[in-house]
Design a protein that fits this description.
Length: 487
Amino acid sequence: MKILFVTSELAGLVKVGGLADVSAALPRALEQVTGDEVRVLLPGYPGVLAGLREAAPVADLPGLAEIPPARLLGARGPDGHDLLVIDCPGLYDRPGTPYTDLAGRDWADNDIRFARLALAAAQLAHGLPGLDWQPDVMHVHDWPAALAPGYVAWNDGRQPVPTVTTIHNLAHQGLFPAGRLGALGVPEAGFAMEGAEFHGQLGFLKAGLWYASEVTTVSPSYADEITTPELGCGLHGLLGGLRDTGRLTGIVNGADDSWHPRDDPYLVRRFDLATRDEKQRNARAVRQRLGLAQRPAPLFSLIARMVWQKGVDLVIDACETLVRAGGQLVVMGTGDAALERRMHTLSHRHPGSVAVRIGYDEPVAHNLFAASDFFLMPSRFEPCGLTQMYAQRFGALPIAHRTGGLRDTIDDGVTGFLFPDSSVRSLLGAVRRALLTFNHRPGMGRMQREAMQREFGWDAPAREYHRVYARVHSRALAAGRTSACHE
């Protein structure tokens, strides 16, 4: 099948979070494992345009209401994959992230910017003059692309294209004032509870859920959790209905093979299951680089956005106990300024035992996984998570809250340690279990071997997504035949 993959991030060109990694790895796996032909559609941010190969205009994208027209470029990404890129400098040629300016403020015209992405997807789905390619299924990711199924549905009676919407994080929904309907070309009929309306606002993600043929999310446990009032972010009723009709599926993400200690170019010393003792050389190098004392202490690491969701405050509150027990802690991340300041205070209070790196550095991150004995992931909720998979591959046993994809990818007491609730007491209970294991070397070695042997590749997820595509495509074909018979 031909799949149009619609995303706002793509690793190798533009990355804010795990969405970029999925957007790069899943299309490759689909083509290699299932034979599907996948083209990735994304906005032409400066970094994207600079990284393209063989870029050339392939079609014109008409505007709608206040959404400007644009050019569509056909190109190849750094890895040679086929891309479709929206060339619209007025919307995308600016500094900052895809979503915010350099000061971290949301762009005031984000509704227009991502409506342009969604509208381009719908226009591609219905066929563009001059472009000899039309998808069988459209797969959109998170709120920036999620208005696309709405535009497909509001198509003046043309045959709908089957669509799949994937939720990577339900907490981010893309909500805009109802007064923006006209500017975005959203019909009044679409602004209803059975449509894009969410508590009086226009919800991009709500449209993506309501109008999609099927909805997926990034782990089976998170698929269950988002049907509850606690984690459903006000959409639990809609999501529960999708589940009850068999149109909500949880598929665990894979982990890209670039995160593997046997051939990682960033490591001081590469290793595999048979040579995992080489972790100690990496640990010595990390301690020297980050100013930690050179001692045979259990090394804990945390690589995360410093925000409430990630439970960073729990680690801060648990740090004193962890250090008194002889542990060392390395933290890398950026986010909430207050959490960053508290982390810096800890590093000054415990020189040689706590190191903090504000920001993100890819080589350092790889070396942290290679050096660490334990990897902290106390997220209050976690749709899937990738770092706990990377950690297990590197023999860094994750210590994680029993939620979402963490519950689905960590085997408690076998490949890591799970704790039951988001509290310091619960986290410290898991830390104490980890320290006991560290001091029992046969048990520690056994758990590291189990963790490093776990398979977290993309082949199995690709097959599951292909089954979803095949299902929605078959239903669309059947609906088309039924409509033809009625005519």
